[in-house]
Structure formats: structure tokens, C-alpha cells
Amino acid sequence: MAQKVVIIGYGFSSRLCLSRTLGQLGYEVSLIVIEKINSKPIDCYSKYVKHFYYTQSYDDEQKIIQILLEKCRDDKQKVILIPIND
Fold it and tell me: What would the DSSP string read from start to end of 26-38?
């Protein structure tokens, strides 16, 4: 079973770079995209991204926590969270 990693943030270039690097190392990568979008960001099409989820802004903490608890949780191992924005 591959280690699960969740990348959280906005700015597709940072998410794309991290997801590619981690995916090549064998990690199972999920993205939480934080931005107002009209279409699926380009990094979500990466072959290394297994799952992706959306929220409109960092101010919506409840939505981020809900995604983490419902979609990104794993009872068999700890999930690594990588926030890419300060």
C-alpha cells in the first residue's frame, strides 16, 4: 500500500511540481485545490494525482476539514499533509 499524501493550496505550478515528484517516488497523491475556478486546473490532469477536491478559499476552514476527514482519511496509516502556501 502506497503512502498517501495530500497537497493543499492554490497555484497550480507548485501543486503540479510536488505531485509529480511525490508520484514518481511512489506516493498516492491527492490535491485540495483552493481557488475560484471555472474549469479543472491543469495539475488535476496529472497521471500522478489520484484524487482532487475543491474549495473556494482558505477562509472556508470547515470545508477543508470536511474534505480531509471524509475523503482523505485512512484508518490503516497516517496521511501526510503538505500545505504549499503560508
Answer: T-EEEEEEES--S
Tens of pLDDT along 24-57? 999 999 999 888 777 788 888 899 999 999 887 7
Task: List CB contacts of 8: < 8 A, sequence separation 6 or more.
Answer: 31, 32, 34, 64, 81, 82, 83, 84
How many other CB atoms are found less than 10 A from the CB of residue 66? 13
Rounded to two decimals, the pTM is: 0.86
Helices (H), the chain: 12-24, 61-70
